[in-house]
Design brief:
Elements lengths: L2 H10 L5 H12 L16 H16 L8 H16 L6 H11 L10 H22 L4 H23 L1 H18 L3 E3 L4 H15 L5 H12 L8 H8 L2 H13 L2 H25 L4 H5 L2 H54 L4 H20 L6 H15 L4 H4 L2 E3 L8 H28 L4 H25 L12 H21 L5 H35 L1
Parallel strand pairs: 1-2
Length: about 550
């Protein structure tokens, strides 16, 4: 081969870093869960399953969650109900698995008798800890410890039933951690503390973990899963657990995590594209990642596909968000508006009812219409950064990003002035809304409901907007953005408050969980047993 061709080949070759090679090997070593044999496999009636699936879809609509968090939440909901009826928890593993099969979280025949034994052993350990840890403590601490233990249990149940996806997610998270941990330095913070806070940031940004999974992953990072402990080890660990739980929650809430989240979010796009290649091109991965031309072609195609899917994803999120707002807040507010307006003002404004009903969805469509999908320039930046990540060149990992510690304001008088000015934005924005609504004959009740609708819709639209930024490495701020922020920040702040605080008063959740679900699932069990009984009689005749 001529020297020029050798040089050209060398220029196109990428030498993979140890972290990248380790990730490839780890992903290839992940084995799918073994299906149970036909005799021990659990199956449920498809008739019952259809109605259970419909119920589950409606139930999940009244509680806004990321899709990957729905299964764990369902496991928690089922176990809470089961434990309230059967505090000893005997035989509840099979009941849990059957309910998950009813709702089609798993296909018929995927779960079996072995899964039942493993999950029942896990439930028994949870109940042992629960009985001995909460006794003799005040009610607030009992609730805290019980919820923390339940978080550990439900997360481990999900990862036990879906080990393949859990292992892959763990490998991807660890890869981000290994690649970026040397790039961060935090003033006056020990290395092990920084690493812990950084792991929390990765879990929040990449894993999009809720509090339950944050607790579980931190606990299993420093200790072991509940199933790994013997009863004797649990007895020893038990006295230490309240302090351990408190320490883990302190890690999650540490102010350093906020700055590390910002850093991690900016670094994430090339990792997402790399992980997409790993998922879709596992068998060809080594060839693709070691050749610059092939890597560029794959990155370009993957980015374009993801950009195209963003539009559909945003539409789906918008519909899901609006259904959630409609079911949990809007109907309640509209129903409340009519009697309250009648009581205080002796009349109801038809125009106010109509505007309060149709303006929120129109506003969401308008806000979402301003979102921009990334383009080719962004793809080129992702490719260059991705090459840095997988390359054996050590300079990428050692270029340190300095993350400042959380400190008090250096100019307290100036900060005070900014705070006063920021507070005035609430007054200005709300005054403008008040004047406009008064002009079109809105009474005070209708005005409050209008602000409630607009703020919640704006907040959810803002959250959806973050989806479009997941693949953007850098974003140039519009010249008009500071002006827009001036008027919209008060609305966003109100929307965040309403969504987080009033969500705790979601009466639809109460209705489903405490009034509908228990008798509904009891009917399912009776029908399931009847169908099973008829099937056995039929088999005896044959």
């Amino acid at each position: 081969m001529p020297d020029e061709e050798v040089k050209k080949t060398e220029d196109q070759t990428i030498v993979l870093s140890q972290f990248t090679q380790a990730l490839i090997d780890a992903i290839k070593s992940v084995k799918p869960k073994v299906k149970p044999d036909d005799i021990s496999a659990l199956s449920v009636s498809q008739t019952v399953s259809f109605f259970a699936l419909v119920y589950e879809k409606v139930r999940n609509a009244v509680e806004f969650r990321e899709d990957h968090l729905i299964l764990r939440a369902a496991i928690e909901r089922i176990l809470k109900r089961r434990f309230s009826l059967n505090p000893d928890g005997r035989g509840e593993a099979e009941n849990l698995l059957r309910e998950l099969l009813w709702a089609r979280y798993f296909d018929n025949g995927v779960l079996g008798a072995e899964d039942t034994v493993i999950i029942q052993a896990l439930i028994n350990k949870y109940l042992l800890l629960r009985r001995q840890m909460v006794v003799g403590r005040d009610s607030e601490l009992r609730l805290y410890l019980d919820q923390f233990l339940l978080d550990l249990l439900t997360c481990e149940v999900e990862e036990t039933l879906k080990p393949e996806s859990a292992q892959i997610q763990s490998n991807l998270t660890f890869f981000i951690y290994q690649v970026l941990r040397k790039k961060i330095k935090i003033e006056s913070l020990k290395e092990d503390q920084k690493d812990t806070f950084f792991l929390v940031a990765i879990e929040k940004v990449f894993g999009k973990s809720d509090r339950s999974y944050l607790r579980y992953h931190l606990f299993t990072t420093f200790y072991k899963t509940l199933s790994s402990y013997s009863e004797r080890e649990l007895q020893t660990l038990m006295t230490k657990l309240p302090a351990i739980f408190k320490k883990i929650d302190d890690m999650i809430a540490n102010p350093y995590v906020d700055n590390l989240i910002k850093f991690t979010r900016k670094q994430l796009p090339p990792f997402l594209i790399l992980f997409s290649l790993i998922k879709n091109k596992t068998n060809e991965l080594q060839t693709i990642l070691t050749n610059k031309e092939k890597l560029w072609n794959e990155v370009d195609q993957t980015c374009r596909e993801k950009y195209q899917k963003l539009g559909a994803r945003i539409r789906n999120l918008a519909i899901k968000s609006f259904i959630y707002i409609l079911l949990t807040k809007m109907l309640f507010a509209i129903i409340l508006e009519i009697p309250v307006s009648n009581y205080f003002y002796g009349e109801v404004s038809r125009n106010a009812i109509i505007i309060n009903s149709i303006f929120p969805p129109i506003l969401m469509v308008i806000i979402l219409g301003f979102f921009k999908i990334p383009g080719e320039e962004n793809t080129k930046k992702i490719y260059r950064r991705l090459t840095d990540i997988i390359n054996d060149d050590k300079t990428f990992e050692t270029r340190v990003a300095f993350v400042p510690k959380k400190s008090g304001p250096k100019r307290p008088l100036l900060i005070f002035g900014f705070t006063v000015f920021y507070s005035l934005t609430f007054l200005v924005t709300l005054s403008l809304i008040y004047e406009i609504l008064t002009y079109i004959n809105f009474n005070l009740v209708s005005q409050v409901i209008f602000i409630f609708f607009v703020s919640v819709v704006t907040f959810f639209s803002y959250r959806i907007r973050q989806v479009t930024k997941e693949l953007k490495l850098e974003e140039k701020e519009s010249v008009l953005m500071p002006i827009v922020d001036f008027f919209f920040m008060p609305i966003l702040s109100l929307g965040k408050f309403f969504s987080s605080e009033i969500a705790k008063l979601n009466f639809f959740i109460f209705i489903f969980d405490f009034i509908i679900e228990a008798p509904f699932k009891l009917i399912f069990e009776v029908v399931e047993e009847w169908i099973s009984f008829v099937r056995k009689r039929k088999e005896e005749i044959i």
